[in-house]
Input
Amino acid sequence: MTKLLKNAQKTLLNNRRSGYTLPTNNKLYPAQWNWDSAFIALGYSHFNLNFALEEINTLLKGQWKDGMIPHILFHDKNTKYFPNHTVWNCGNKIASSGITQPPIIVSVLRQILEGNKISKKQKGRVKEIVKKLKKYIEWFIKFRDPKKNGLISILHPWESGYDNSSIWDDPMSKVKVEKNLKYKRGDIKVVNPEQRPLKTDYDRYVTIKNHLKANKYNPTKLYKISKFNVIDIGFNSIFLRALKDLIILLKRYNISYSNLKKFSKKSEKQLTKLYDSKKDIFYAYDVKNKKKIIVPSITNFFILYADIKNNLLNKKIIKSLKKYNKGKKYIFSSIKPDHKSFEEKRYWRGPIWINCNWIIYQGLKNKDKIFSSYVKKKTIGLVNKKGFHEYYSCKSGNAMGAYNFSWSAALYLDLVLNKN
Output
């Protein structure tokens, strides 16, 4: 175990660049990703708090003036990655993408602060971070819920973090692909194409991205006119947890939060309404096409991470989760194996992701100690056996995608070392 902990630290340090860390040390992801950096910062916090805070600070340097934190920051412009900085053609101070990702950075910051002693010098830095994160959360409320329904929309599948999940199949099928579309993917030259999203997916990703770009990423317009607009359970669960954790941090630093508290209550109420008791599943909602999306994704169980105040519903969710991969040697597949869209090897359509298991564990540990310990043990066991990879087969446990993967190493450190 000690050797693997050292290897986890080494993986992060080898992937580290000037103030930020790459998701992996190959050519697959040569930039800084939003929620990757959150998980990475948590990993650093177990052996180098300054690196953890610097990771977050570097991410926040790319924050747009309106408060949005992009999903990618392109510190190194000399890459053949697609889509690179020239394709997005935007950014504030740092070249970036024009979309965001789940704001798990807020909850991770709270966890880091509660697990470490913060010096007087660091307190000032942390307060500035908290202010910027407040602006980020307020951006979501203002621009991704303009009708004040209490639920946040994503305007591109990439914003979810689980790019080609089956959740998006129906809304994506409605996206008319742009004519004469030209682009060159680099990912399928680095990783086996059968483990990556299909060309049909990418055609639609690029079409949506081009439409956002044509409208200059204007947040006041895009909610209404985007080719993709979905309220996702996983994303909203992470958002609600971030909102709750932000309020705690704002209290600590004597920063006002009354408007956020009202939204938090409304968000929790609306999120629980997306539970279909007859089918015992949460459903996403396609705002663009006014349609329910019922797909058994592990991300639907992120609702446990939101810590909703409904014990009866939490028990139902946990009961359902226990059936999700029942009898399987490895947990949790990104899509339930008996669903028609399940694919063992294709990115977010079947493989196991360590960050999903970590989020589920965090949501379980104050609700079902025995099951949460089981999830933790199975996750640590998989990494012990297969190493720090991007994702894993839920059938064989075989490692897939990128190797030396930062968030797998970082979250392994947290699962092993965090005793809370």
Notes: The first strand starts at residue 32 and ends at 33.
